[in-house]
Amino acid sequence: MADVKKIAVIAGDGIGPEVVAEAEKVLKRTEELFGYQFETEHALFGGIAIDEKGTPLPEETLKVCQSADAVLLGAVGGPKWDNNSKELRPETGLLGIRKALGLFSNIRPAFIFDCLKEASTLKPEVLEGTDLIVVRELTGGIYFGEKFRRETANGQEAVDTCAYSEHEIERIARQAFDIARTRRKKLASVDKANVLETSRLWREVVIRVSADYPDVELEHVLVDNCAMQLLRRPSSFDVIVTENMFGDILSDEAAMLTGSIGMLASASLGEGAFGLYEPVHGSAPDIAGQGISNPIATILSVALMFRLTFGYHEAADSIERAVKEVLDAGHRTGDIAVDKSTAIGTLAMGQLIVDAMRK
Ligand code: NAD
Q1: Residues contacting ligand 1 via CB (< 6 Å)
Q2: Which residues are designated catalytic?
Q3: Domain boundaries defined on the chain
Q4: Which of 158, 266, 273, 281 is the most exposed, having the fewest neighbouring CB atoms within 10 Å of its CB?
Q5: Which residues form the Isopropylmalate dehydrogenase-like domain (predicted)?
Q6: Would you tell me which CATH number, out of the four given (3.40.220.10, 3.40.190.10, 4.10.375.10, 3.40.718.10), belongs to the domain 1-105+269-359?
Q7: Is the pLDDT of residue 333 over 90?
């Protein structure tokens, strides 16, 4: 019997439904080309779920996700819900779904398409060969530690605590080593071990875990140095693993090397192969409904799903090659077009990529 992979599809708000529709065409084409089988189930999430079900994350949506092998998410949010109370905001649903699904890492690849080098603010020769992944710890550290204020002789004092357990560090380190193993086998662990106790524990645990990965070359980079090296020698990085706040900042820095937010995919992973895949961009309410959004980030999120959850590397290669071919041929959506008058729409870009996919 064929191995049918179940994918929960959450289109969400704004441009979410437009870009997800193109990604679903890519899933269909993959079935035809490679003989894989996908069963998709659609679910409501975000603003649309608030409107229709009175909550951003309905129970049935969570059930659909929990019974799936992977989740494909478009984007959520928009001005319509911006002034809602906290529990009725789409972003609250995002935090809720990550927590409920036990997703503790965020994976963000950043690679350069040669033909888009000009879109970056860095010199093309610096960007040459850049192809890296930032693995960010998502549920620990200073964002989740105890927070409070107290009165002192100097007025109010605010405190945010940063805590990491060995367990939290070990599970993300293993994930990063595993990913590095499928790539160029280089891992940069980023910390601030010269100052922070959490970083010293981080480094100890990463070194201990590295004994199980003798084939992966490990380097330790202080976070301030990493921020510089990403601009100076981005192509020397393969996989970067780091804690929550450092990862938040470095993943945005790495993303911007590539020039456009419409091109960037991401994954959130937990224990095992299950993952939630989504473009890095938001719901882009300013262009929603016009058919001009760039579907590439969502299409590349499908490729990432194939690599990280299903191990369908050939199919992922096929998608990434197709995207490259279409861009090399000069096709652009408005966000990446130099001459906006030649820009094509979401549907046309999706179709060109589907047509360019080959076994
Ligand atoms: P955004 O990413 O939605 O848009 C920023 C700019 O980039 C806009 O000008 C938009 O038109 C453009 N853009 C984004 N994606 C594009 C694409 N695929 N093709 C072409 N252009 C694209 O960020 P924002 O404007 O700060 O946020 C809009 C809404 O999205 C907010 O409600 C925010 O909370 C939400 N948001 C959701 C997520 C998510 O679902 N994970 C992430 C970020 C923001």
Answers
A1: 15, 19, 75-78, 91, 94, 261-262, 278, 281-287, 293-294, 297, 335
A2: 143, 192, 224, 248, 252
A3: 1-105+269-359, 121-257
A4: 158
A5: 6-353
A6: 3.40.718.10
A7: yes
pTM: 0.93
- Which residues 6+ apart lie within 8 Å of 183 measured at CB? 133, 238, 239
Model pLDDT for residues 29-58, shown as the tens digit of each residue: 999 999 999 999 999 999 999 999 999 999
Binding site annotation covers 86?
yes
Per-residue pLDDT tens over the stretch 292-306: 999 999 999 999 999
Question: Which residue out of 72, 80, 281 has the highest number of ligand 1 atoms within 8 Å of its CB and is therefore the one to mutate?
Answer: 281
Residue type, 116: L
> Which atom, in ligand 1's list, is nearest to the CA of 15?
18
Was 185 annotated as part of a binding site?
no
CA distances from 48 to 52, 55, 98, 274 (A): 6, 9, 18, 25
State how far the alpha carbon of 165 is from the alpha carbons of 241, 245, 261, in Å: 16, 16, 33
Architecture of domain 121-257: 3-Layer(aba) Sandwich (3.40)
What is the number of other CB atoms lying within 10 angstroms of the CB of residue 51?
A: 12
**Structure-token match 């981005």, residue found:** 234
Bridge partners of 188? 219, 240
